[in-house]
Design goal:
The protein folds into 2 domains: 55 residues; 84 residues, no CATH class. Helix content is 32%, strand content 7%. Strand 2 and strand 3 form a beta hairpin. The longest helix has 39 residues. The protein is rod-shaped and about 130 Å long.
């Protein structure tokens, strides 16, 4: 008897079975890979989330709107310093401080502030110029944006009527 030729339908079914019946050896070989993807993947994404969470917290902790750093003032060509009016400054370290500051961060010395009207220098803690009687509320314009996180409220400053 001549061998019966495989009809196309049977051939198709045989071909289909090679696709549908899983190749178990191949799958077992893939298991470590699946483990890596299944375990390390979520772990990594958790790590990334944790890192992002820490980054956010760090940033939030660093934002201190009410406590800007003092600005170093550069000397004039003749070695003197010109301090802008209405800005507290330290004559020892030549630093310009935010309007709410009253003492130097370095040596806790009193800051001075210059009157814009008559150039009288007074302690930064004083709101009133003793010469012209003008009252300058240092830092008043900052009041709406001051966000203080768990510190003491600004000393003096905005409480002047
Ligand atoms: Zn100083
Ligand atoms: Zn004055």
């Amino acid at each position: 008897m001549p061998p019966t030729p495989v009809d196309p339908w049977t051939g198709f079914l045989q071909w289909l079975s090679t696709i549908l019946i899983p190749d178990w050896n191949g799958l077992i070989g893939l298991l470590p890979l699946l483990l890596i993807v299944g375990v390390v993947g979520p772990g990594l994404s958790l790590l990334v989330l944790y890192w992002l969470y820490n980054r956010l917290n760090e940033k939030r902790g660093k934002v201190r709107l009410d406590d800007p750093q003092p600005i170093a003032l550069s000397a004039n060509t003749d070695g003197t310093y010109t301090y802008p009016p209405n800005v507290p400054y330290c004559t020892t370290h030549h630093l310009l401080y935010p309007p709410t500051a009253h003492e130097c961060d370095i040596d806790r010395g009193d800051l001075l502030v210059r009157c814009p009207v008559d150039d009288t220098v007074r302690p930064a803690g004083q709101q009133l110029c003793r010469t012209c009687g003008t009252r300058y509320q240092l830092g008043a314009s900052l009041a709406p944006v001051v966000v203080r996180r768990g510190g003491t409220p600004p000393a003096g400053g905005a409480a002047v009527a």
